[in-house]
């Protein structure tokens, strides 16, 4: 392992890049730990944002003004304000208020706030995609299910949702890829993700370009994985004859 | 009711979220009781600094979209070229800068570029906000190139055929037939991109540019009062919303108008 | 072929009224279908024919009037469970087929028997394959609706309705969306069903087909039944001038369309 790293550092040094931090156990470990935190962030926000998306979409199409109105308002505000400002409003304002109220035992860590804010933010985009999917399900197809004696619940789970998810899937995958990139803002409130770990290293060693390449490759890899999973799911759910 | 399935249309609620929001803000304000003076006085005091910060946000966003558009159109043109060798670098550029987190790109341009550049023997300062502008212009250019590609692809192939049958050359078809039709189609996604870039300028506070968010942070730390902190961060949120929401409304209006053509 | 029990019709509509918003669509419809009968409803587009069928299976609720299917008062049903009980007995075939595009042909045929009737999967599959054989599509069991032609999809849709073992089937302009060359295969399936004694109500624009297979024909216009009777009487000696005008218009044009293709039939009329 170390021999490989040595060779890599030598080779990159020959190219004019300084990857010596990889030979320092402490810095290397903190970088790897940062990468792992980013992966955890991605997994948590994926689950969270999809849950928020489904709930918001359900509210948007519920047809009940007292539910759909606030949901639409939330969607508009979230879409039209910067994520970083939302994160500050949550972490610096709400977190402060919570700490004021319940004292030092505040259960919300910066990590939790990042997951909450990004889940809510991307959940909005998921909800829009799902809403479009639900609206794309032809009324006549639902009518056919009704005429076959499906109950409302059966109709939703057997016909409406399967079709809506198929329509929404490409947008959902796009949103998830956007979201992977978005987790980089976690570094703004000192969550030790890969970006934050890199900042700590490059302020010591002044090797911004080298770390930048690693970060970009890392995010590229994550996006690639999400994209592959999405494509795989699309292929599995493909409806022959409907050119998706 | 299941029986009224084909009668009920899913209603589109909240036609005017902006108005609803204004109303909600007003209600919260009233519910909070008499607005305390010690919270609003500092806000008034800090408002010139905040306005200056926001002006910087807008300046960065305008420059970034301008640069990004010029660069993006050039790359888009490259991507249309029939030569593979010319298309490849364009493709690579789009892939790299569309898939990179914006924050990372901003760090990149801020730390990699020098703080001053030498032009013809003179040292010109290269301020951080300009570096951030470049950092935002990079992903903007990749997105503009993609928007451009999408617009060209959306022109039906029959237009090419018709023009070719009239004896136009490839370049002539592009210039006189395809591109004029593209402009209209590009406008909504381009405006959308502009709104996203404007929101992206908030990231500049992380590299020490004195933009709106940075100013708000300084103000919050200086005044150091709970009520003021709440107020100032939500003011920042409201300012961005007030700037971006009309753009997104207008974008949607254009989309709907073009959809019926 | 038709059952002799004239006193108790399987379907009975009395004075049915229905409006969409302010537009009246049905303005007092009376209609009877005996068990085992085939009844056709003809009339110009927008005269409320499809709406009528949707009322019978409870997809739409009339504002006034009575609808009975056997001993069920459809107009008085309220709960989902009651509607589901009705729809288990009434099959419906749509103009646009409305198959479920994400399910294979076989799954389209088995999903409702399994999920709604609670039938065994194995048994439902066997029955589905038998029905596919009946509509000459057993080789398409694994295909998806998007891979089939319109005529094939419509035959699958008929098989899907049959898989519920309904007491009657409503056909809503089932050939209107089809290419002319595939109309025949669908009509053949319907004709077989009628010959087997299935109670059928057809909304159709295929006048010749209606004349040939129906026990009774209803002519509707502007949401009312203008006249009804045996096909022979209605097509050959229509009482109402409106019926006569409609038949002249459609058949006249239809014959001009068809003459080059089937000159013998056209000449015989």
From TrEMBL, chain A:
Membrane topology listed for this record: Multi-pass membrane protein
Name this polypeptide is given: Polar amino acid transport system permease protein
UniProt-listed GO biological process terms: amino acid transport
Keyword terms, alphabetized: Amino-acid transport, Cell membrane, Membrane, Transmembrane, Transmembrane helix, Transport
Gene Ontology cellular component terms for the protein in this record: ATP-binding cassette (ABC) transporter complex
Primary location class: membrane
Occurrences of domain ABC transmembrane type-1 (ranges): 35-230
Coiled coil: none
Gene Ontology MF terms in the entry: transmembrane transporter activity
Pfam families named among the record's database cross-references: BPD_transp_1
Localization: Cell inner membrane; Cell membrane
Record organism: Azomonas macrocytogenes (Azotobacter macrocytogenes)
Matches recorded under InterPro entries: AA_ABC_transptr_permease_3TM, ArtM/GltK/GlnP/TcyL/YhdX-like, MetI-like, MetI-like_sf
Presence of the UniProt keyword tRNA processing in the record: no
Listed transmembrane segments: 33-62, 83-102, 184-202, 208-229
From TrEMBL, chain B:
Alphabetical list of CDD domains matching this protein: TM_PBP2 (cd06261)
Membrane topology: Multi-pass membrane protein
GO molecular function, one term: transmembrane transporter activity
Subcellular location: Cell inner membrane; Cell membrane
Keywords: Amino-acid transport, Cell membrane, Membrane, Transmembrane, Transmembrane helix, Transport
Highest taxon in the source lineage: Bacteria
Domain ABC transmembrane type-1: 54-241
GO biological process annotation, one example: amino acid transport
Any one Gene Ontology cellular component term annotated for this protein: ATP-binding cassette (ABC) transporter complex
Transmembrane segments: 57-78, 193-213, 225-247
Family of the protein in this entry: Belongs to the binding-protein-dependent transport system permease family. HisMQ subfamily.
Role of this protein: Part of the binding-protein-dependent transport system for glutamine; probably responsible for the translocation of the substrate across the membrane.
NCBIfam families, per the entry: HEQRo_perm_3TM
Listed name of the protein: Polar amino acid transport system permease protein
Species of origin: Azomonas macrocytogenes
Top-level taxonomy: Bacteria, Pseudomonadati, Pseudomonadota, Gammaproteobacteria, Pseudomonadales
From TrEMBL, chain C:
Keywords: Amino-acid transport, ATP-binding, Cell inner membrane, Cell membrane, Membrane, Nucleotide-binding, Transport
Main location: membrane
CDD domains noted in UniProt: ABC_HisP_GlnQ
Topology relative to the membrane: Peripheral membrane protein
The keyword Transport is assigned to this record: yes
SUPFAM superfamilies: P-loop containing nucleoside triphosphate hydrolases
Family statement drawn from the similarity comment of this UniProt entry: Belongs to the ABC transporter superfamily.
Protein name: Polar amino acid transport system ATP-binding protein
């Amino acid at each position: 392992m170390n021999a490989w790293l040595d060779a890599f550092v030598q080779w990159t040094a020959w190219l004019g890049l300084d990857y010596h931090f990889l030979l320092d156990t402490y810095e290397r470990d903190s970088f790897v730990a940062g990468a792992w935190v980013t992966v955890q962030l991605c997994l948590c926000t994926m689950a969270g944002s999809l849950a928020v998306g489904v709930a918001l979409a359900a509210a948007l199409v519920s047809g009940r003004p007292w539910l759909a109105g606030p949901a639409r308002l939330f969607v508009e505000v979230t879409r039209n304000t910067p994520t970083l400002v939302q994160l500050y409003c949550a972490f610096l304002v709400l977190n402060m208020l919570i700490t004021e109220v319940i004292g030092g035992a505040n259960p919300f860590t910066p990590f939790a706030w990042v997951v909450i804010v990004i889940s809510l933010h991307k959940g909005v985009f998921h909800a829009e995609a799902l809403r479009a999917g639900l609206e794309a399900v032809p009324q006549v197809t639902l009518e056919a299910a009704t005429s076959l004696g499906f109950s409302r619940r059966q109709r939703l789970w057997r016909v409406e949702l399967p079709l809506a998810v198929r329509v929404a899937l490409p947008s959902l995958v796009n949103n998830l890829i956007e979201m992977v990139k978005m987790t980089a803002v976690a570094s703004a409130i000192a969550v030790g993700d890969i970006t934050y770990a890199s900042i700590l290293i490059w302020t010591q060693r002044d090797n911004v370009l080298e770390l930048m390449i690693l970060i970009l490759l890392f995010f590229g890899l994550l996006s690639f994985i999400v994209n592959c999973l999405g494509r795989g799911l699309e292929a599995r759910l493909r409806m022959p004859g409907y050119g998706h | 009711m299941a029986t009224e399935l084909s009668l009920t249309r899913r209603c589109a609620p909240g036609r005017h979220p902006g108005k609803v929001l204004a109303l909600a803000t007003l209600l919260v304000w009233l519910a909070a009781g008499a607005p305390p003076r010690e919270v609003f006085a500092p806000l008034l005091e800090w408002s010139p600094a905040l306005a200056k910060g926001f002006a910087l946000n807008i300046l960065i966003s305008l420059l970034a979209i301008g640069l990004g558009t010029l660069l993006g159109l050039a790359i888009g043109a490259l991507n249309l070229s029939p030569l593979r060798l010319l298309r490849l670098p364009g493709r690579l550029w789009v892939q790299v800068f569309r898939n990179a987190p914006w924050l990372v790109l901003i760090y990149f341009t801020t730390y990699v570029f020098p703080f001053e550049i030498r032009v013809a023997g003179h040292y010109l300062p290269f301020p951080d906000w300009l570096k951030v502008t470049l950092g935002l212009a990079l992903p903007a250019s990749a997105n503009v190139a993609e928007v451009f590609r999408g617009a060209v692809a959306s022109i039906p192939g029959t237009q090419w055929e018709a023009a070719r049958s009239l004896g136009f050359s490839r370049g002539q078809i592009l210039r006189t037939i395809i591109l004029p039709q593209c402009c209209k189609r590009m406008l909504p996604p381009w405006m959308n991109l502009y709104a996203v870039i404007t929101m992206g300028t908030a990231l500049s506070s992380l590299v020490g540019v004195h933009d709106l968010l940075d100013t708000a942070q300084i103000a919050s730390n200086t005044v150091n009062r709970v009520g003021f902190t709440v107020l100032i961060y939500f003011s920042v949120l409201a300012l961005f919303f007030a700037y971006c929401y009309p753009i997104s409304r207008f974008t949607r209006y254009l989309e709907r108008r073009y959809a019926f053509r | 072929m038709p059952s002799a029990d004239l006193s108790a019709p399987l379907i009975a509509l009395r004075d049915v009224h229905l409006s969409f918003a302010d537009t009246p669509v049905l303005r007092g419809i009376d209609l009877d279908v005996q068990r085992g009968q085939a009844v056709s409803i003809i009339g110009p587009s927008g005269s409320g024919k499809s709406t009528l069928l949707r009322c019978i299976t409870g997809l739409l609720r009339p504002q006034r009037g009575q609808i009975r299917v056997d001993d069920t008062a459809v107009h008085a049903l309220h709960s989902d469970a009651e509607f589901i009980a009705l729809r288990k007995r009434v099959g419906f075939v749509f103009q646009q087929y409305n198959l479920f595009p994400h399910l294979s042909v076989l799954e389209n045929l088995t999903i409702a028997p399994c999920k709604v009737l609670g039938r065994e999967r194995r048994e439902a599959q066997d029955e589905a394959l038998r029905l596919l054989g009946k509509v000459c599509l057993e080789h398409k069991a694994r295909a998806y609706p998007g891979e089939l032609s319109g005529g094939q999809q419509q035959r699958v849709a008929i098989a899907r309705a049959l898989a519920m073992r309904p007491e009657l089937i409503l056909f809503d302009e089932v050939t209107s969306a089809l290419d002319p060359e595939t109309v025949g295969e669908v009509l053949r399936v319907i004709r077989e069903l009628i010959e087997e004694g299935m109670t059928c109500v057809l909304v159709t624009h295929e006048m010749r087909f209606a004349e040939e297979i129906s026990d009774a024909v209803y002519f509707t216009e502007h949401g009312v039944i203008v006249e009804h009777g045996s096909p022979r009487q209605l097509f050959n000696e229509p009482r109402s001038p409106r019926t006569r005008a409609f038949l002249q218009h459609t058949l006249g044009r239809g014959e001009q369309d068809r003459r080059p293709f089937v000159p013998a039939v056209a000449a015989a009329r």
